[in-house]
Design brief:
368 residues, alpha/beta, six-stranded mixed β-sheet, five-stranded mixed β-sheet, 14 helices, 13 strands
């Protein structure tokens, strides 16, 4: 009997341990909070944010496990959207196309954070641009790109060695251009054309065929000179900070700010200048819930203090969050224009016109 009792007790103990293990692993949440899994498609510039262990923990504490895939913002409406719970492009324009494709009625899209576009430049390139009056420097590592003079130089196919002072820098060769992403699929490339077309259209938004014909030749030059186009800003930026790549690259300010705030091992940043275009379109990251599972997630990203703080850690500017951004980036004002002083924010053309401008810039469709 003792032996039978001992076996039974051992079985109970083993079962108890097993029960404890299953209990401990059965809940994916934090602090006992059960989570629901939502799947979304996002712009690649937000991948690091959603992959951050602290973000994963903060979302789990609010009841979410978020799985993401990346896509060019302007290509999202071509995806099988029924397979996702939300889409998170990098601006409002592709968000409208996603809403139309998904046939959403009364959708509550949210813009939790935004980021201006900037041009990262090699130190020598920034100096030459300033000497040629295509830019002004407010410090060794930051300044303003003068879009009017820059676009005039681009329209004239001006080379680096034609700019004053460039003769000192043999590495600056070829036509002066800014490396961008593909404007037909990527948000940053499309918004660059939106800003450039505004300047080329005598300071007004392109709104008709005449404006398209007026600006398309210049936009084509801006794109054609680059050769192969990247689909996201990530690879060109990584090449730049590793010391390779072109001397001028269009990226999001958030990529630069995240690099500085997280003190990543990114090589020597003393040779980098951050130029803010004086005419620009901010990238307002727009969360589009595609069903009820994700309907509250966008508002959570916008309002939850922990998630707002983590967005700033990744270089984003929360909506109405200038104080948060300036406090966090205070040690890095030698690179960042915290208050966007001297920067003119302009409206974008309609989606139809901007899509046409992007196609013309890549020499697709009818020529003017």
């Amino acid at each position: 009997m003792r032996r039978i009792f001992g076996i039974a007790l051992a079985a109970l103990l083993i079962g108890g341990v097993t029960a404890v293990i299953l209990w401990g692993h059965g809940d994916p949440g934090t602090d006992g909070t059960a989570t629901k899994t939502v799947r979304g498609v996002i712009g690649s510039e937000k991948a690091d944010f959603f992959n951050d262990a602290e973000v994963v923990k903060a979302l789990a504490a609010k009841g979410y496990t978020v799985r993401t895939e990346t896509s060019g913002s302007w290509a999202m409406d071509k995806l099988p959207l029924e397979q996702y719970d939300f889409a998170f492009p990098s601006s409002t324009e592709p968000a409208h196309e996603i809403e139309a494709k998904a046939k959403l009625q009364g959708v509550q899209s949210t813009r939790p954070f935004y980021s201006p576009l900037v041009v990262v430049a090699r130190g020598n390139a920034a100096t030459v641009l300033a000497d040629g009056k295509l830019a002004t420097m407010t410090g060794k590592h930051t300044g303003t790109l003068l879009m009017g003079p820059y676009l005039k130089a681009a329209g004239e196919d001006r080379t680096w060695q034609q700019l004053p002072g460039a003769q000192e820098y043999a590495e600056l060769t070829g036509t002066v251009f800014i490396r961008t992403t593909d404007p037909t699929t990527s948000n940053s490339g499309a918004l660059y054309l939106a800003a450039a077309s505004h300047v080329a259209n005598n300071g007004t938004v392109v709104s008709d065929d005449a404006g398209i014909s007026r600006t398309a030749p210049l936009l084509r030059k801006l794109i054609a000179v680059q050769g192969a186009l990247a689909q996201s800003t990530d690879d060109p930026f990584r090449a730049f900070i590793s010391g390779a790549g072109d001397p001028l690259i269009l990226v999001y300010e958030s990529q630069v700010a995240a690099l500085l705030l997280q003190k990543q091992d990114a090589g020597d940043l003393t040779d980098m200048a951050v130029l803010y275009p004086d005419t620009t379109v901010n990238s307002a990251h727009t969360f589009v819930p595609l069903n009820d599972k994700a309907k509250d997630l966008g508002a959570l990203l916008a309002t939850d203090p922990a998630l707002r703080e983590l967005a700033v850690k990744h270089g984003m500017r929360p909506q109405d969050g200038l104080a948060e951004f300036t406090a966090a980036t205070a040690p890095h004002t030698d690179y960042l224009n915290q208050k966007l002083t001297g920067i003119r924010q302009v409206n974008t053309p309609t989606v139809k016109i901007l899509t046409t401008l992007a196609a013309r810039a890549k020499a697709q469709g009818d020529t003017p």
